[in-house]
Design a protein that fits this description.
- This protein has 243 residues and is an alpha+beta fold.
- Helix content is 17%, strand content 31%.
- It is built from six helices and twelve strands.
- It has helices at residues 12-23, 72-79, 99-102, 165-170, 186-190, 196-202, and strands at residues 4-7, 38-42, 48-52, 57-62, 84-86, 104-109, 111-118, 121-129, 135-145, 152-162, 176-178, 211-215.
Length: 243
């Protein structure tokens, strides 16, 4: 699955310019002045992250709250279960089947973290683009209105797929990975008029050879410690790992 990522960009302008260029259209930043850098952030912290729609960027809560949720208590309960959406069943699950039709978005990240199980011990890895580009993570979003306060909350879920060869080695228990979209497929993904067959064809493992990975400090596994430090993404050697 994908529950921990690195989002390091602090400039909304730079982030949006990257996607304006890739999409060949103007993307609005909604007057967002700064972005919060996260060298390590867990989805279970429900952070605000900048998702890119077809024409704008929005700060959105990680942990999708479907529009039909009745109250704040239900919203709080469901968002911890919707950090990820399995691509194989996304068109069928009640929480996701409306959003996948027309409410697709992208989260551009530096990389993500996953754990490899070797002899009943887990070792953290940082996975990133082999050319140091942003990873275009395929997501869905929804908006939910708190009927008590009138507050409108935007939220999103990261879609997952079966693992490619690299991720089969790293995430060797569940063998999953986030949906990573090639630059040339972003417009198809964001276009709300794309057919179901087109969208389904995009939900597949990322091509082999386009990702790199290295092990990182044991700190990445310590949820009670401050993991949001620049050093967390640096390579860390474990002598007991042969390859």
């Amino acid at each position: 699955m994908c529950f921990s990522v690195a989002f390091i960009e602090t400039s909304p302008k730079k982030y949006v310019e990257n996607y304006s260029k890739l999409l060949n259209k103007e993307i609005s930043t909604s007057n967002i002045k700064n972005l919060e850098p996260y060298y390590f952030v867990s989805g279970f912290q429900f952070p605000l992250l900048p998702i890119v729609l077809s024409d704008k960027m929005l700060l959105s809560n990680w942990g999708l709250i479907p529009y039909w949720v009745k109250n704040k208590a239900n919203a709080s309960e469901i968002k911890s279960k919707t950090l990820n959406a399995m691509g194989e069943t996304i068109f069928e699950k009640p929480s996701f089947k409306k959003a996948i039709q027309k409410q697709r978005c992208i989260l551009g990240i530096k990389g993500f973290y996953e754990w490899r199980n070797v002899q009943q011990k887990k070792y953290p890895y940082f996975i990133y683009h082999s050319k140091n580009e942003l990873l275009n993570i395929g997501c869905i979003y929804d908006s939910w209105t708190d009927t008590e306060t009138g507050e409108i909350i935007m939220s999103f879920s990261i879609i997952t797929t079966p693992a490619n060869k690299l991720m089969e080695k790293i995430h060797n228990t569940k063998k999953r990975m986030p949906l990573i979209l090639p630059n040339e497929k972003l417009n198809d993904w964001l276009n709300e008029h794309s057919t179901v067959s087109t969208v389904k064809s995009l939900i597949q493992p990322y091509s082999d050879g386009l990702l790199d990975a290295h092990t990182v400090s044991p700190l990445a596994s310590l949820s009670r410690e401050n993991r949001n430090t620049p050093e967390i993404i640096n390579p860390y050697h474990y002598p007991q790992l042969i390859d």
